[in-house]
Design brief:
The complex is a heterodimer of chains A (195) and B (222). Chain A has 195 residues and is mainly α. Helix content of chain A is 82%, strand content 0%. Chain B has eight helices and eight strands, in the order H-H-H-H-H-H-E-H-E-E-E-E-E-E-E-H. The chains are: A mainly alpha (195), B alpha+beta (222). Chains A and B meet through helix 1, helix 2, helix 6, helix 7 and helix 9 of A and helix 1 and helix 2 of B.
């Protein structure tokens, strides 16, 4: 009994291992193409779902499109490399915005940004011109206030959510929001509509 | 929708930008780690690790059973010590205080700050973190901020990992102060004195003389 069953068990195990090895080799053979397809599909999905939000946040920090586009691309690359798992699309978006914010801050060289922005005339010259006064006002805010203003009004986050996203205290975020509004009210006067 | 939203809504990923980014990403080295041995065989490694944990756990249980180890509290049938029940206290447990005295009470030691600060400020926020660290934020004007921290600890408690161009060690009132910044101005300093660790961050920077006055006042007051 033992002599008949035991070898069958061994042969079955060996067959399974061989099948696994063949499957692994087959997978490895096709893996690079499939991985690339996966990467492209993921990148396309992220761009379609969150591309505009990430681009706008980066723009709010860097004040020019080439840098903002670079940050969007780098954020995507970070996402694809780390392949994080999320409970929900809200968490996924918050992760992307957090990475984009950090990458943008790393890139900021205040003087360089100001200089490049002065040279970046197409922004003022194109169709956004009629609203550029609002952007000009927000640009004058300190970064800690403008990032809160952007995330609050553009992305609709609460101050608690912004605090988590930026790793700051909620009281500080609220304070920055208040100061930012006050300053915008002073600059924009009757055109102020941040309520 | 306000005018800021209207402005921002015109900033969007165009078809050209989308194509450009996808093209760059497909030529970027996105998945080098996937060729890595550990990634490729991660399921096998995970299975082996699980087996190892189960084996170690089983071995430990058998050993404990053999030795019949019972803690004194278990033997007496008492509850676990409430002071250690929630011993994982996050830094994010922050209490906002109204004054330095209130902050001192919250952290359990005297928080010392100079009577005169080396910078002007128009608001101060006092926080006690969950791990008994005093954290004071001074705000000057719209965008100048300084942070001061004090905690029963040693080493650098600033939380500032910025790589500054210059770093120097200063001897101030018996404390060895590590000061960092860009050029002449000091943007970060930390020091230990007695059982306390301190740090000061100033986004606009202060001079060595101003830092000396600050550290002397803090350590001298103790």
């Amino acid at each position: 009994m033992t002599l008949t069953v035991y070898p069958r068990g061994i042969s079955a195990l060996l067959r399974r291992v061989a099948e696994a090895v063949i499957a692994a080799l087959t997978m490895a053979h096709h893996s690079s193409e499939e991985l690339q397809e996966d990467v492209n599909a993921q990148a396309g999905r992220i761009l379609d779902s969150y591309g505009n939000s990430v681009l706008r946040l980066a723009y709010s920090y860097l004040h020019n499109m080439p840098d903002a586009e670079d940050i969007l691309q780098e954020t995507l690359i970070r996402y694809l490399r780390s392949a994080p798992q999320f409970e929900s699309s809200d968490h996924e978006k918050a992760w992307l915005l957090r990475v984009a914010a950090n990458l943008s801050k790393n890139r900021i060289d205040y003087n360089r940004v100001r200089l490049s922005e002065e040279l970046n005339e197409e922004i003022a010259a194109d169709e956004k011109n009629d609203l550029s006064f609002v952007w000009e006002a927000v640009k004058q805010l300190p970064q800690t206030q403008s990032e809160v203003i952007h995330l609050f009004y553009q992305e609709g986050y609460s101050t608690a959510e912004i605090a988590k996203l930026l790793s700051r205290r909620e009281s500080t975020v609220r304070s920055d929001l208040r100061r930012g509004r006050e300053k915008l009210r002073g600059i924009l006067k009757e055109a102020y509509d941040f309520e | 929708m306000n005018n800021y939203n209207k402005f921002m809504d015109k900033i969007e990923v165009t078809d050209e930008m989308r194509k450009r980014i996808l093209k760059n990403i497909s030529s970027a080295d996105i998945h080098p780690k996937k060729q890595n041995f550990f990634i490729r065989y991660r399921s096998w490694i995970a299975a082996a690790a699980c087996l190892a944990i189960i084996a170690i756990g089983a071995f430990t249980v058998v050993r404990l059973g053999d030795q019949n180890i019972v803690s004194p509290s278990q033997a007496e049938g008492s509850q676990s010590d409430p002071s250690t029940e929630n011993n994982v206290i996050g830094w994010w447990d922050i209490t906002e205080c109204g004054s330095v005295d209130e902050l001192s009470q919250a952290v359990g030691f005297t928080v010392t700050i100079p009577d005169e600060l080396p910078f002007s400020y128009d608001s101060a926020d006092y926080y006690a973190t969950g791990d008994n660290m005093a954290d004071i934020t001074w705000r000057a004007g719209e965008d100048r901020v300084a942070w001061f921290r004090q905690k029963k600890a040693s080493g650098d408690i600033s939380g500032d990992c910025t790589s500054y161009k210059d770093e120097r060690t200063l001897e101030i009132s018996g404390a060895e102060v590590i000061a960092s910044g860009d050029g002449e101005l000091i943007r970060k300093a930390y020091w230990n004195y007695g059982e306390m660790a301190y740090s000061l961050n100033i986004d606009g920077g202060i001079t060595e003389q101003q830092l000396t006055a600050f550290v002397s006042a803090v350590t001298g007051a103790r």
